[in-house]
Amino acid sequence: MTQPTGSGPKSAARKRPANRPGEAPVTARQRAYDGIRAGILKGAFPPGSFIEEAMACEATGVSRSPVREALNRLAAEGFLELHPRRGAMVRTLSAAELRDLHEVRQMIESQAIRLICRNRRPVPAQMSELCDTHEATSAGDLLACVEINRLFHQALVAAAGNTVLTQVFDSLQANLTRVAMLSLQLGIGKTRQIEQEHRALIAALQVFDETRAMEILAAHLKPMPRLMGSLSG
Amino acid sequence: MTQPTGSGPKSAARKRPANRPGEAPVTARQRAYDGIRAGILKGAFPPGSFIEEAMACEATGVSRSPVREALNRLAAEGFLELHPRRGAMVRTLSAAELRDLHEVRQMIESQAIRLICRNRRPVPAQMSELCDTHEATSAGDLLACVEINRLFHQALVAAAGNTVLTQVFDSLQANLTRVAMLSLQLGIGKTRQIEQEHRALIAALQVFDETRAMEILAAHLKPMPRLMGSLSG
DNA sequence: CGTGTACGTCATGTATACAATATGAGAGCG
DNA sequence: CGCTCTCATATTGTATACATGACGTACACG
């Protein structure tokens, strides 16, 4: 089977020989995006370092075209900082940016709660299910906990029914995920307590108690400034 | 002068032969982005239509690589909707999306006012200057008025000193610009009144009168729902 | 006459070749 | 010994060639 199809860069490790028809068409761009993103989150590409396109090509097994598109997308999401003619630098989160991010995040989730209560929007069952999943997940599995937490807050914002608000929140996910990872690694915020607070928030939202929900959210997000302190000094 | 330099697509109208050293390096990507963006705003690419890459190449005089990057960026900004293997469709703003956009915009600018007043942030001189410019601009020049208005609100949010908030607001600019254009075209919102409200807002912010500034903002953004009504029915 | 299938055409997705520029090292000079 | 200028090199920016999949059309069959 000497198929001379140009699929895959000349001599790179390609995980998939080709897209078999009828199968999920995993595009090269997606592989590049996933690979680079994972590398950043796992620390393979440390903050402040430059990701060279050739390096990313080798790591993901695709050519420069999809890699460039992935880098652009990651830059738009806040993972990278593009320097023309220089390359893509992994962004470092300064203490000031962390504070700003926290402020905006609180603003968005507060607005979501306001909309849910004011418009009597139903709380999606997914949120409760995520709490169950959270409970069943080992506290040691940081990645899983962070992902569940992410999905919970995403569902909260989505429940508000404002597509633009959801999009804006999603655009912060990149950096929020990195913060959450840091937070848990440093032992700030216990996963069990987080789960309890999530359940309390659901309870308040189900009866559209805006005031109470706001209080719970404020308490829930309170540990974040502690993280900033531990970074800056 | 048969220069076989590959600069410029084979036989497309190229506005710049090459980047002369020491001159502002206007990249092909930027030209593609500007050209397509202008085409969308001017209506050359009507909402709902598909922009084919070859078409965009011919219109902007660059090859597919920069065109694709421009299309991706425009999609990220909300101008386009990418359909894999189908192309890039110019997004249409539904009445619901307009409402959502308005809600989020108000949330962001309210937060900016809150931060300015709470943290006693100085009001940049640029904002007053923009009002002067606005006053000196013919009310008939819609494009200029929209641009001045955009810069004013951008400066307002920037004055809050939260970089993440600023970024988020910027990410809405694409659609906000389109809305503003529509709004003025339909005669909703008079430019003179807008300028007066801008000046009143500056006055309130200079003495950190949060309550008054909020009232002015609410009144200033009030006409927008009228626009939505005129679109949906 | 309607429907299903097969094929042709074309736009997108991907890979690679080419061009231009920034960076860094090294040689020459003050 | 330090500074500067020059040149080599490597990486990004751009163009183009190739592969793949989708859509439309035409033909054959029921």
TrEMBL record, chains A, B:
Family annotation (Pfam families): FCD, GntR
UniProtKB keywords: DNA-binding, Transcription, Transcription regulation
CDD domains: WHTH_GntR
InterPro entries in UniProt: GntR_C, TF_FadR/GntR_C, Tscrpt_reg_HTH_GntR, WH-like_DNA-bd_sf, WH_DNA-bd_sf
Source organism (scientific name): Paracoccus alkanivorans
Region described as Disordered: spans on this chain: 1-29
Protein name: GntR family transcriptional regulator
Residue intervals of the HTH gntR-type domain: 26-93
GO MF annotation, one: DNA-binding transcription factor activity
